[in-house]
Amino acid sequence: MNLGVFTVLFADRPLDQALDHILGHGIHHVEIGCGGYPGNAHCNPKNLLENLDQTKKMKDMLRERSMQIDALSAHGNPLHPNKDIRQSDHQDLLNTIKLANELEVDTVVTFAGCPGDSDHAHYPNWVTSTWPPEYRDLLEWQWSEKVIPYWQQMAEQAQKYGVRIAIEPHPGFVVYNTENMSRLREAVGTTIGLNFDPSHLFWQQSDPIAMIKEFGKKQAIYHVHAKDTYLDDQNISVNGVLDTKPFSEMLDRSWYFRTIGYGHGEDKWKEMISALQAVDYDGVISIEHEDALMTPDEGFQKAVGFLQSILIREKNTAIWWD
Fold it and tell me: What is the tally of structural domains in the chain?
């Protein structure tokens, strides 16, 4: 396993400066955002596809630094009921798949998306309850009429361009846990795999190790994000884990995202990395940052130090065992 960085952490600076900063901390692998919610500050796939000289320039920029792209990301909602948003996010994803082929990157990370409650809806409708019974009807309509047909289509596109799609389970979208991630993959095929991000599992009280085992046995973990979540037990005891307050109201929220090690300690992260090693995951662990209590650079540096020490120990343990 190698340590990497999701470059949207440093969207405030040009890509070459971001790469130099990342390389200065001994990291040679990057994940680059290409649209959707994180934006495309470092990589606009449409522009690059229309100007392959710029694509070559990006390749040269990485090669000169002995760095490589482990994944391109387009975290949008291509199932959004609003036609303009849906088409924009779909086109971002399709262009990202095409660009991955040009850049010789084999993995594109994205969300599964969430439709509305009908063809005339304006907003996504995330179903989280089995009763009243119309929720079950809505959920089945979403999957049969929107989710499966769309991802079958996109799997075909990904296969055409020699790319695999890593879906990031995320509450608010139709794929948010082990069960519905499995449902999508079984319906669509092995072009679809998992982007494992434990931060979204922690606050649901779901065990990340169980997800690693489930998809690791199938060699279906295509990418990994490193981000933590802090659980406020006092607020959870009052309101549970479903929390719609803004992230700015941290003192009153049941949970919020943190830098690695500030939500769960070293033992939990060692357990997850050991589990990834046990299922023969040999890809990149890509550092994300959504911690409101630290600047991106502070969170980045703390996460690098924390994870590097664990990865070095895991590597040395594996060498000794061999």
Answer: 1
